[in-house]
What does this fold into?
Amino acid sequence: MRLWSFNGGLPSLAEHKNESVNLPIEIAPVPKCLVYPLGQHIGNAAKPLVQVGDNVLRGQKIASAQGMVSAPIHAGSSGTVISIADHLIPHPSGFSAPSITIETDGVDNEIDYTPCTDFRQLSASQLVDIVREAGIVGLGGAAFPTAIKLDTQGKPVTIDTVILNGAECEPYISCDDRLLKERANRVIEGVEILLHMLSAKRAILAVEDNIPETFTSIQNAITNNQNPAINAVQIPTIYPTGGEKQLIQTLTGKEVPSGKIPAEIGIVSINVGTVYAIQQAVIEGKPLTSRIITVTGEGVNKPHNLEARIGTPISALINVCRGYTKQADRLIMGGPMMGFALPSDNIPIVKATNCILVASKHEVVTEKQAMPCIRCGLCASACPASLLPQQLYWFSRSDQLDKAVKLNLFDCIECGCCDVVCPSHIPLVQHFRYAKSALKVQNHEKHQSNVARERFEAREERIAREKAERAERSRKKKAALKSKPAKEEIDAAVNRSKTKKNSITNED
Amino acid sequence: MSEYLLILVSTILVNNFVLVKFLGLCPFMGVSNKLETAMGMGFATTFVLTLASICSYLANQYLLAPLGLEYLRTITFIVVIAVVVQMTEAIVHKTSPLLHQVLGIYLPLITTNCAVLGVALLSVQEDHNFIESGLYGFGAALGFSLVLVLFSTIRERITVSDVPEPFRGNAIALVTAGLMSVAFMGFSGLIKF
Amino acid sequence: MSFFVLIIMFAVLGILLGYAAIRFKVEGDPLVDQIDAVLPQTQCGQCNFPGCRPYAQAIANGEADINQCPPGGEAGIAALADLLGVEPKPLNEDNGVEKETLVAVIDENTCIGCKLCIQACPVDAILGAPKHMHTVIEAECTGCELCIPPCPVECITMEPVAKTLALWEWDKPDTSQQKVSS
Amino acid sequence: MDNYKQILKNGLWENNQAFVALLGLCPLLAVSNTVINGLGLGLATTLTLILSNSIVSLIRRQVGNEIRLPVFVLIIASIVTAIELVMNAFFYELYLILGIFIPLIVTNCSIIGRAEAFASKNPLVASSIDGLAMGLGFTAALIILGAVREVLGSGTLFANAHLMFGDAAKDMVIYVIRDYEGFLLAILPPGAFIGLGLLIALKNVIDKRLAKPASQAVSFAMDTEKA
Amino acid sequence: MANNKTMMMRSGLVLGLFSLIGIGLVSLTQSVTHEKIAENERLYVLKNLRELVPETLHDNDLLADALHVIDAEAFGNTHEVTIYKAMKNKQLVAIIASPTAADGYNGSIKLLVAIRNNGELLGVRVVSHHETPGLGDAIDTNKSNWIYSFNGRSLNNPSPRLWQVKKDGGEFDQFTGATITPRAVVKTVLKTLQYYQANKKALTTTTQQTNG
Amino acid sequence: MLWVLIALVPGIITMIWQFGYGVLANIIICVSTALMAEASMLRLRGKAIAPALSDLSAVVTAILLALALPTLAPWWIPFIGAFIAIVIAKHLYGGLGYNPFNPAMIAFAILMVSFPKSMTVWVLPHSMLPTGISLSDIFTIVLDQQPKQTLIDAITAATPLDEMKTQLGLNQTVEEIRSSSIFGSLSGQGWQWVSIAYLLGGMVLMFKKIISWHIPVGLLTGLFIISFAFYLLEPSVTPSPLFHLLSGGAMLGAFFIATDPVTAATTPKGRFIYGVLIGLLTYIIRTWGGYPEGIAFAVILINMAVPLIDYYTPPRAYGHK
Ligand SMILES: Cc1cc2nc3c(=O)[nH]c(=O)nc-3n(C[C@H](O)[C@H](O)[C@H](O)COP(=O)(O)O)c2cc1C
Ligand SMILES: Cc1cc2nc3c(=O)[nH]c(=O)nc-3n(C[C@H](O)[C@H](O)[C@H](O)COP(=O)(O)O)c2cc1C
Ligand SMILES: Cc1cc2nc3c(=O)[nH]c(=O)nc-3n(C[C@H](O)[C@H](O)[C@H](O)COP(=O)(O)O)c2cc1C
Ligand SMILES: Cc1cc2nc3c(=O)[nH]c(=O)nc-3n(C[C@H](O)[C@H](O)[C@H](O)CO)c2cc1C
Ligand code: SF4
Ligand code: SF4
Ligand code: SF4
Ligand code: SF4
Ligand code: FES
It folds into this structure.
């Protein structure tokens, strides 16, 4: 298959996958408590369906989707709801947010699932409903509710290609690799479901060319399956080839137009973990309650992949990996490139968590004293989005954010390539994140001030009108004192309402 | 033909009105904070300067010289310029709000741009004919616009720099103008006098 | 006496200008709108004008300086300076100091429903009927504090706006390269 | 009285036309290659400022908006032309050196600037004092810049004094540095820009020192103590 | 409408009025000063000439006894050359020519060359030039004494072969790093001397004449 | 920056070999002045001194300036030059990374307009020096002790470019001019080897990816094309393209000066345009302007246009038309 290339990227990033990739996936034990932040996906937070004290079973829906873009949440094990309150969430802000906490009973009772023997009997919309009800969101990082992506009904798009993202380009992370090694058959079955749902012509499963054994196991699964529409390809190992846009460019040569979604060019891209979850939901009827996650880094004694229940506190996962080593320095959720540091290990993993990296001092890019930007342009040549990071940096730094927006700040995918190559050690991505969030706040403030202006002006008008009316009334009253036949009074009232109407139209 | 080219090269590069002849400096310093405004000012100046140069030539040739009133040159020129500017402003304001957005606010500033009067006076001093006067004004204005636009982009760059406190603002801008002037000395000798 | 020709010419030019002034007369001033768009619309009156728009009008007329709006703060002054093409200057302390945005909260147990605060609020952010307890619509309160003085039972307090996740900001990295004081 | 003092202070320092308002730059930079040139143009400008401010202040109520600008420039141009003729008659050589910058006083932005900003809103006396103050501030800037450039560029001070004060002043010239090769940059155009830039920075430093109360000095002393 | 018309007329009137006052004032000043100014201009030119030909040497009005020549062949360029004649008792004692050396480093150098009637140079001065400050500008009396080295020279002193800068094998100094300027000046002075030699006859006859 | 210094070594050695130890004197004075100026400015501005000095940018600036100065300049020339480069052209703008103009070239241009006399006199290449010139003779010149005029005249001359221009001005043909002994087979005697050494060093930089190819290639292409075009028109009175490429500062400029990342354009397309414009302007100034060598002025002139070039040449961002 012909492959294309994208601008920049980092071909020679240290991989660090061996630490975790060689051991089989271990099923993590049920922890004492499971914590479910209500907003763990893109879109509106879910609405709790349970109350403190309720008993729940594994697979039971404990919070329902709220609005179009949202996803339900299911309990990961049986137990009792002990609180619905703020809890530390995995977010760079270190904020707490409303969460449901379940104390598990150790029995791990499940609800009755309704498996499906032949998914081809189901219509696309029925399948979308299953996916939605199973609480499946993108497991590749963004946690976007998958059902929306797959629901092409009534939308002016036709999907031509489904891209299965198994690139896993970030260093250290190996959960998708392990998944494909061990459960390729089920993933391929998931792909078939997708093809059926989307009536797409073809599916491409892409993995990096540095994991040949995994590729073989996928090919075996495809051969078993005998579906000519499914293809597996090896793509060059260049970070961030797993980024949706870069992957699409690599495989199809097309670019997703800025600000648009892949569906516009007939493509849906889905992480292989997500596909696995879809297969589980459709075939076995199981909602999303667990996922495969890499726990790695020099900071843990036994780095490997776990299948862990969503909601498990990180501390429990660390215990499964035989605890921290002496080198443990920083706790990072996600990979070293795009992850963020966590303030504590009393934080649950969420659906989007693909990796817990317990890094030693030298594993994370040590924060060297940033020197001035010397405009060398290395960042621009590394940027997969073909932006000019140095210029974005100058303008973010000096708070000329509108100029940064003009230079396509919002096309930055925060991949961190520019950070890595910058000889002056400037934390560029942090500047861009700052700029983006500051812009969001500014827009909010702008909106608020517009609302305030409208309300202020409306009030001014109202006051003016009332004053005029009062004046009118007192004049009328005086006039009425002289002679007040009833008819006249009615006339006056009619007039009054007329002038009122007039004044309103005049204002427009 | 080549003498016309010489006039252009001379006024734009070698004897740049701003950096070499020291004319039109106040707007050069004043409206060079942003590229957009600099461009607006550049357009406005080019238009007015050319027009003023021509009008002054006509006034001088057909009014002052025949009447022997050369000593009233300054007065006549400046009033003619002020009127040209104000008329342009009024007309643009009414007829093309869009153009007025671009040029309008700069037009009144131009009357007090000494480059305009300077062009008129120097042009008369150098005995230019009609076409030469127009070209002289046009070239001077192009030279003005060129350095104004370049200067504004450099100033935009300076605003994102770590300039030491006492130099922020006008001081560093003047130093920059000085260095630009050094650079423009590289053009000296292109035109022999 | 040949200069009379000139004088006549000037007089004609004057007439021409007078004609132009009438013929090409334009109404309205978009500048005020532009300035008003930059102001924070808190409507607090700290600028010594009865609201943001009057202040904008005053700036456009050259009657007020650009550094009189405390809610807008340094950023607001910078934006005004940028718009008007002048140098920014520090906030005039006579008008107040810049502080974080607050919202008014009415202690609903103490509120006697006197309606005085409703009359004071420039953006109609307070709800309530006479004799019933009042409450502030948080999303619409600008934090202008104008409702505080009229309240007879002092039941209104100003509180910081809770930071939501959606409006959380990343820290801006430090870039000063200043000597680290040991 | 205080009011007038404020106007003076404003003109000489706080709103100095050259250093702060950056107006009248063309003559400032063009003729400040020697002190004497600067002085000559400075005085001519001051005179123009005083006269134009006074006249504009007198007629400010009589002139409508649509012809305000032409009338103001007409007044200024008349004054300048008169001054030019007088200089031409009595200081001929200085007149030759200052060249086109005498008629260009007309468009010296600070003159029309003061007419618009001050004289058209203030009474006669205040306006003329404002003219005086602004003019003196401008002259001072011309002299300082002229001195800096003259010393650096040619190693002298008050060269050509005779152009202004007559032949008796020929000996006024001071050779600050003898046998000086001359740092040509200073008397060339770039030197004018850079010189003014440095002077403005200097003024900023002074302003900052003045603004900081005595506590600054104390804390400074403490700093050194620590070290 | 009528209101508009009066407004227009008013504008014209006000501007006219002020121009009357302004122009009147200036015209007044002009009438007072114009004679003095004309005198200044005259004296200024004379001053330069008299530096070369002192008043003791002549008794005529130099500015009146002047003629203008354009002679590309003799001077090598088409710039106009004014020749002032200094006379005593109606006898030509010296001429002052104003040739232009067009091949200076940065363009033309305007000179005044004073030649006694015996062909000896009374002196040479530079009236205007664009030579590089610090290099070529040493031809200016303000910068160096080089230009005085022409005093007393004539066509045979040194011999015509030596009427060059030293670098080209002649007698006149060049400046370190700058040969073009002095070369141009020397050449033009020589040409002026030759022109005088050739046209001596014509110049000594008192009738005014114009060449070319 | 270290690699820049390393890449300069062949050029410096060749220069010392051809023009003697005067080069070294320039380098020493420039570097020490620059380091002192840099340290004092950092101190005045309250910035950490050690990390800023160790980035070696001041050293690079100083050495490039030193290499551009005449080999026997009196000591105060490199001193004033380095001071101007570091204080005015660099730190007034905020130090490393912020200066819009190439500091070394600003210093060179200012020296050129201020002291044209001292700046246009170059010592002859080693092979052409009369015998009997000692090291101490050279140092009397460097120390500005008014050496004997005859000494100066014996060992100095205008540079080949200067000579070419002067003689062309006297209506000589290129062939006649190049018969003079200061010209070698390729360009100037001595100069040609120095240029080739810079070319080698520049290749190292390009190979090490310290500089991108756009600027040097653009510059040399620009210079080549315009000189070739005029050479075709009038070969007898126009020096050959090769002469232009190997004369004066063309090679040093193309690989070490125009490539200064801080003052060059930052977009790939912009860099090429930037290089071409410098090449063209260099030729224009060399051929018709007042200065014999145009690289320095061309660089700072195009430096002015850099923000504009960058503004109009952004790369097409992903997903944009
Ligand atoms: C606000 C938002 C809206 C989206 N809307 C859609 C959509 O309507 N249809 C769709 O197929 N994908 C949609 N997406 C999903 C994106 O196309 C993309 O697959 C998702 O952001 C994950 O990509 P990432 O992990 O590279 O960021 C949306 C994503 C976001 C953030
Ligand atoms: C820089 C970057 C790198 C990414 N790398 C991967 C990756 O290696 N594997 C992956 O599945 N998703 C990766 N993603 C997320 C994908 O862009 C995209 O969200 C995902 O493939 C969509 O599938 P999902 O909705 O099922 O998560 C990356 C995103 C970015 C921005
Ligand atoms: C910037 C600059 C300006 C120069 N100005 C002059 C000048 O004004 N007059 C002059 O004769 N030579 C000037 N020269 C020198 C000429 O280029 C040429 O080198 C010199 O005249 C040859 O003389 P030489 O043989 O003594 O070196 C200048 C050179 C440079 C670089
Ligand atoms: C490839 C390269 C070329 C450089 N060229 C110059 C130069 O021409 N002039 C200069 O002053 N500094 C040069 N520098 C050093 C540094 O960029 C310079 O000091 C900055 O301009 C100062 O902010 C160069 C650095 C590098 C890496
Ligand atoms: S983080 Fe943004 S700017 Fe940096 S390389 Fe990635 S996409 Fe480009
Ligand atoms: S890589 Fe770093 S130093 Fe180089 S241009 Fe980008 S931000 Fe600047
Ligand atoms: S101070 Fe600011 S926010 Fe308050 S009313 Fe005035 S302009 Fe509006
Ligand atoms: S509720 Fe109070 S603080 Fe809030 S906007 Fe209304 S008056 Fe202002
Ligand atoms: S004095 Fe202001 S533009 Fe010249």
In short: Chain F has 17 helices and two strands. Residues C 104, 120-121, 123, 125-126, 136, 141-147 surround iron/sulfur cluster (ligand 8) (CB under 6 Å).
